[in-house]
Amino acid sequence: MKRRDFLQRVGWMTTAMGALQAGLTCLGDRYAQALAQPTSRKLALLVGINQYADTALNGCVTDVELQRELLIHRFGFNPSDILVLTDRDATRQKIVEAFVHHLSAQAGSGDTIVFHFSGFGRRVKMGETANVVQNTLVPIDNAQGTVNDLLEQTLQLLWRSLSTDRVTAVLDTSYVDTGNGVIGNLKIRSLKSPSLVLDREVESDFAAQLLSEVRTVSSKRQAQERSGPLPGVVLAAASSAALTSSSSPLSWGEKALEAQWNGFSAGLFTYALTQYLWTATPATTLHISLSRATGVVEQLAGPHQLPSLAGQDASVRSLPVYYLAPNAPWGAEGAIAAVEEDGKTAQLWLGGLPASTIEAYGVNSILTVAQTVEDAQPVELQIRSREGLTVKAKLRNSETTEPFALQPGQLVQESVRMVPRHQSLTVAISTELERIERVDATSAFASIPHVSTTVTGESVQPADCLFSKVKEADLVKIAATSAKSEGSYGLFSPSQVLIANTIGEKEEAVKTAVRRIVPQLEALRAAKLLRQTDNLGSSRLRVKAVLEMAAPREQILIQRQPIRTQNPDRPLRESLDNEMLSLSIGSRIRYRLDNQEAFPIYFLLFGLDDTGSIISISRPSSVAISPLQSVQKSASSLDTNEEGKSAIFKQEVIPSGGSLTIPQALNSVEWAIAGPTGLAETLLIFSIAPFGNTLDTLKIAKSSTTGEDKSAGTLLNPLEVAQCVLQDLQDASEKRSPTLATSADAYALDTQAWATLRFIYRVV
């Protein structure tokens, strides 16, 4: 279709749009009212491109699947109202036509629209001499030697052609010219800016005619909004990815990254956002969701990626995601996608599990079909196999239970998690090393139990860390000044952030370096294992943890509570903006823990650095308990080993209905935030039973304490401790469910027996 012919069709479609405007209710404070509007329609256009001609991506089509399944099963979109364009179907012409025909022509006032794009972005010059560039989305028909991109200006005009303000764009792309398609083991979703300039005359003519057609919809509205923020909101994977105004931003911005997990690849931002939204309740707001997703993204991507929010409604604190309430008040880990003829076997989509969990999700894990009837007999599905985010599951004990009809679309919730006991750590060996260095490294890592290797840039399997040489720039980032360290070997995060405690000497042999970092590899394995207990979305344990600022001024910062035990209409406090919480060095913090159960709750608190290579554990020698236990008791909870040194601690208990503060010493000394800058992570692990195995291991006193604060110690045997923690959680699960089927190959964890709550914040 020629461009001018296409414009004629645009004119016909936009004329029809005027008849579709019904004057429905606009966004209100409580978005549950929006879902109750029976005449409103929900439309989506999802675009994902992997198979570019010169450089392919891996996770963009998965992004579209993640978004589509979420919209259908959690936000009530009709599948026929979701148009998907992937790979060869995602040409420039088809994307623009789909926008006009599927969105502009059908949407009326008060309808809800979602536009998602995953693929490459870049910046192009607007004219030979003009020092002006514009962000673009790169379609599949981007032939070398030409510029056939979707311009920011074109997207803005299409956006303003919509008759509704309830519009959301999700852009998992970036525009920065990196000169390299990868960072560590992560792919960058941006192309190098072309040397060719855009045919400004052709594009300006097209834009002018399209703008003229858009103005025919409502000239008054366009005159008011044309130079202001775009209607609705734009969720961007990188800070420069937002379409903020009619003039293109000139800053280089940040990077949108995608990662390879066990069996699938996806954009960091899309996965983090959609995964959290599977657990959404009616109280879930856009700002809370973006804050949670940002924390996950920054932990994986380091400083390279920072999601952003723009648009006319970006500052509305109570704004719901996609302007909609979820179609069920409870969250889920996934949904039934298909049922086999026997009626007992189903294919499940598990987009609601955290990436760290799904990657090692074991066979025999159990999910329960969510039912609206209270006290209904549980219908359990046991996993038999997994491929990426899809699993095959079978009705458990179907011979002894009442008949139940499995149906596509039914939500499923986690009941029992099987975590493999013997998991490997994958080290990606940098291609920047010489061939002989890579050979020596592969041989050296092969001698370490439960450690496997791959090569950076390969997408065959994921990597937990990288092995490479340390450069001067790496040392600058961590404020290290030793000249001897430059050129030495060390470990890096998957996003190529140096792990400071793995730096060696410059002339060190490869095999010597590998032997030297074995303790750090064990710590990374321990962190991986502990993170796999994260169950904020699925736990049924009624506990709550509050991160508070104690100084320089008292303030509640973040609250965490298992989502399925919350009041679905009342959101918990989150950070003050849509970004991750930042705390200044020197600030003093504390955690307040509440037990809302009718029985005692036991807990452990672990602190991880930004790479997971250093793990500390709280010593509750300075814990105050209320209302049933005295401070005096907690002060006497330190144990002493045979050498007269303080061991870690005896088990503390949060009584039924009680609360506990960590730390609150008798002299009122709270934890002080110390350097270095970067991310900090806390894991609070609650259980219905004591951590007996863990405490026995901790009493060996394999920990070190530095500085004046004796309330926490760095573990020197983190892997052993982590394994004991999971064994203790299994023991608690067996106490909760005596018939729980256990295995010698995996830990069996009942979601009613434990809760792991994660706090991630930035130290500045």
TrEMBL record:
Record-level GO BP terms: proteolysis
Gene Ontology cellular-component annotations: cytoplasm
Pfam family, one: Peptidase_C14
InterPro entries the record matches: Caspase-like_dom_sf (IPR029030), Metacaspase (IPR050452), Pept_C14_caspase (IPR011600), UCP_caspase_lke (IPR011189)
Domain Peptidase C14 caspase: 41-309
Gene Ontology MF terms: cysteine-type endopeptidase activity
Gene3D superfamilies: 3.40.50.1460
Protein name: Peptidase C14 caspase domain-containing protein
